[in-house]
Write a structure and sequence with these properties.
Elements (H helix, E strand, L loop, with lengths): L2 H8 L10 H4 L1 H5 L5 E2 L11 H13 L9 H15 L8 E4 L2 H12 L5 E6 L3 H9 L3 E6 L1 E3 L2 E3 L2 H11 L1 E7 L11 H13 L3 E5 L18 H4 L5 E6 L1 H4 L7 E5 L2 H14 L6 H13 L1 H22 L6 E2 L7 E5 L9 H8 L2 E2 L1 E2 L10 E5 L4 H17 L1
Parallel strand pairs: 1-13, 3-4, 3-7, 7-8, 8-9
Antiparallel strand pairs: 2-10, 5-6, 9-10, 11-12, 12-15, 14-15
Helix pairs in contact: 1-14, 4-13, 5-13, 6-7, 6-12, 8-9, 14-16
This protein binds pyridoxal-5'-phosphate (PLP).
Length: 394
């Protein structure tokens, strides 16, 4: 589907009064409701019709008693993975959860002990650090290298951090939010080889797996090198970023290793007694089966938005836009043109944008800003016009 068609059918330029975090919490979180919302990672796009139809059809049945996850759901997940990544998970090893973040916190809790060291590659999604701190584990942050906006993984530094701190678990972000990286085979292999050598378990958060742009390929960690590492990987995944279904609260955990799967099942048997949500299951299954055309149009729109933004900022040689290999979250390093302490005031008060700031993702990234590109192109143009206008005044 082309961008014009996609925007005509699905772009929602105003989501006020829908209890939207991104739109209706501006005043509460930023103290100002008149900002262009480019923060929370959801999309200002309607879901595909097949999703809406599936939810309406289920609602029209009118009976919402206890229900289980049907085989057709697991099959749809496995079919999608196979079609897009050439990897078919064993459907018996998929567990449905109500969001990736919950699954992440549980994983840290069940696979490590209080006081154990858990490593993350910063800058990274802030809930990774929260999961480690909240569960009373020791947070080991290892910064990615960054040169003019390009983030790379330093294997020696990673291994040294693991050895020096006796790390037990690595929470991986693949693709990586907010660095925009889609890890290459050799980078993934280095990460996994190091973890294997030192007995480190890997929780691989692949929620952004479908948001990968031309020239890049997402490799599910469990499928790396023909599945060589799958026994030491817990994969967290979902279609919620892909199809904008965050509040459908339906995501997947895939665990190949029988021992680790048993730990998962024992843990959830103790603490998790909630049935799956019939609307979420219907929505995800419908999206996976009928959402390909929408998915294509959505990716083209995001890429178009990225190009507008990057081209405009490209006129300032000292502003570095991280190449968007994956995710719809663009990370920009303003440190050479705006003092890091003034970055927030510049973006919010002058440019009138609600964004996320680098320090949320790692303490050394103050002066970076993360912008959510999943919005109609007019919104993105407004934001970039404001930024360009204010940069010219500096
Ligand atoms: C890497 C990553 N994991 C998880 C989430 C959220 O997952 P969920 O909404 O399923 O809890 C996000 C949202 O931005 C994310 O970027």
């Amino acid at each position: 589907m082309d961008i014009k068609e996609f925007c005509k059918r699905y772009a929602v330029p105003d989501r006020h009064n829908t209890n939207s975090f991104k739109w209706d919490l501006l005043k509460e979180k930023f103290g100002d409701e008149d900002l262009i919302p480019m923060w929370v990672a959801d999309m200002d796009f309607k879901a595909p019709e097949c999703v809406v139809d599936a939810i309406v059809k289920r609602a029209e049945h009118g009976v919402f008693g206890y229900a289980f996850t049907p085989d057709s759901y697991y099959k749809a997940v496995a079919d999608w993975e196979e079609r897009h990544f050439g990897y078919r998970p064993d459907t018996k090893k998929i567990r449905v959860t109500h969001g990736v973040v919950s699954a992440l916190f549980w994983s840290v809790d069940m696979y490590t002990e209080p006081g154990d060291a858990v490593i993350i590659l910063t800058p990274v999604y802030n809930q990774f650090a929260n999961a480690v701190r909240t569960t009373g584990r020791r947070l080991i942050s290892c910064d990615l290298d960054c040169d003019k906006g390009i983030f790379t993984f330093d294997a020696d530094k990673f291994e040294k951090s693991i050895v020096d701190n006796d790390v037990k678990l690595y929470i991986m972000c693949s693709p990586h939010n907010p660095a925009g990286r889609v890890w290459k085979q050799d980078e993934l292999t280095d990460m996994l080889e190091i973890c294997r050598k030192h007995g480190v378990l890997v929780v691989s958060d692949e929620i952004h797996h479908d948001l990968v742009f031309d020239g890049h390929k997402h490799i599910p960690t469990a499928s790396l090198c023909g599945g060589k590492y799958k026994d030491m990987v817990i994969t967290l995944s979902a279609s919620s970023k892909t199809f904008n279904l965050a509040t459908c609260l339906t995501s997947n955990v895939i665990i190949d290793n029988e021992r680790l799967l048993k730990i998962w099942d024992d843990f959830t048997a103790r603490y998790f007694h909630v049935e799956d949500n019939v609307f979420g299951l219907a929505a995800v299954e419908a999206a996976l089966k009928g959402g390909e055309d929408w998915y294509d149009g959505m990716k083209k729109t995001i890429w178009h938005n990225y190009e507008i933004f990057k081209d405009a900022l490209g006129k300032w040689p000292d502003i570095y836009v991280s190449p968007l290999e994956g995710t719809y979250l663009m990370f920009v390093d303003f440190r050479k043109v705006i003092p890091a302490d003034e970055c927030r005031a510049f973006i919010q008060d002058k440019c009138r944008i609600a964004a996320n700031y680098g320090e949320n993702y790692g303490e050394n990234f103050k002066g970076f800003v993360r912008f959510n590109l999943a919005a109609p192109p007019e919104t993105i143009k407004k934001a970039i016009d404001n930024i360009v206008r204010e940069l010219k005044k500096l």
